Amino acid sequence: MDYKEWFDKLCETHEREMKQAELRGYARGYRQGLESDVVPKPCNGPKYDDWRLGDFVMQITQEFCEMVDEYKAFRRGDAGAIDRFAYECTDLITATVSAMEHAGYDIDERRRLQEKVNRSNAERDGGRRFK
Prior knowledge:
The protein has helices at 3-36, 53-75, 81-102, 107-123. The chain has 131 residues and is mainly alpha-helical. Helix 2 packs antiparallel against helix 3 (81-102).
């Protein structure tokens, strides 16, 4: 193999390895992007196999009551309650998403509905609902 053939082969190998590294980087970036796009994950594991929609609604009610309890604790002066309040709000969102998933609304459908609600809220009250 002469020098030119060797150099061409080296360049081809380098180019192929760079493309593979680039693809791995894109894949890693894509996965990290998904991980950083934290969305509520519905509770839909085996524990919930025998749950009906009403069971999910009752879970929403329980989480709502827990959120209200933490709000009341905050209003009474419990400084740590605000963090618990936020946690319970997040639990409430998760319970709601779980009920929606059980009712047949997957993540794409939930995103579509959220977009619809956001648009509606943006138009209502003369556009004063959002900053």
